[in-house]
Specification:
single chain; mainly alpha
Length: 230
């Protein structure tokens, strides 16, 4: 659609380009003021159309064009998979897409590489992250209730203040992750999950140890061992 509009715009400019005789001395213009005014008017109109096309070009190449396509509230426009809206440049190859406060309930990210993506304060209830790579992904203050994270790789994920109530964390690798006392694992399935080097508050650790069972198929670590259950 943008190419069509740009093509029409360029076509309009071509049709109003000033004639070559306007760039040279022309006795007709000096002798017939009416013709000069007419041709000058055509030149002004041509320049106006060029300015309008330039404005369209700037619009289509700017971030504002995204709003014309539906806005950032839609999953396909939030630039999650494209890696846009980068906020960190101090690490080579690093990216951190911001989706702060976005409504993403029941979104399907199964098998996707979402490393470094920030779902900060977003609603992702019932989301599908099965088998996803979530290394360094931030779920700070996010709601992940009833989401499927089976087999997800979550090394150094930020789970501070996140709600993972009734989540399926079976066989997930949640190593070296960041957790606070406000992080909720209530009702979560942690069979085969690896929590190695993830610091938990005493009451959280006690709660998870009561539910711990199985061995992580990726790391070979027992869930109870990773939680240092007594």
């Amino acid at each position: 659609m943008r190419l069509v509009l740009l093509g029409l715009c360029l076509g309009s400019v071509a049709s109003f380009l000033p004639s070559p005789h306007l760039t040279r001395a022309n006795p007709r213009i000096r002798s017939t003021p009416l013709e000069a005014r007419t041709e000058s008017g055509d030149l002004v109109q041509s320049l106006s159309r060029r300015a309008a096309c330039l404005g369209l070009g700037i619009f289509f190449s700017s971030p504002f064009a995204a709003f014309a396509d539906g806005g950032a509230s839609l999953v396909e426009n939030s630039k999650i998979r494209e890696g846009g809206a980068s906020t960190i440049n101090n690490q080579r190859g690093a990216r951190k897409t911001i989706t702060r406060g976005v409504q993403l309930d029941r979104s399907d990210f199964a098998g996707d590489d979402l490393s470094g993506v920030s779902f900060q304060q977003s609603q992702v209830r019932g989301g599908n992250f099965k088998g996803s790579r979530l290394a360094g992904t931030s779920f700070f203050d996010a709601t992940l209730d009833d989401s499927d994270l089976e087999g997800a790789y979550m090394n150094q994920a930020n789970l501070e203040m996140a709600s993972l109530a009734n989540c399926n964390l079976k066989n997930a690798v949640i190593t070296e992750s960041y957790v606070t006392g406000a992080t909720s694992f209530e009702g979560a399935n942690i069979e085969g999950a690896d929590f190695t080097d993830t610091f938990l508050r005493k009451d959280q650790k006690k709660y998870l140890c009561e539910r711990a069972k199985g061995t992580n198929p990726t790391t070979g670590v027992d869930t109870a061992e990773s939680l240092m259950c007594q």
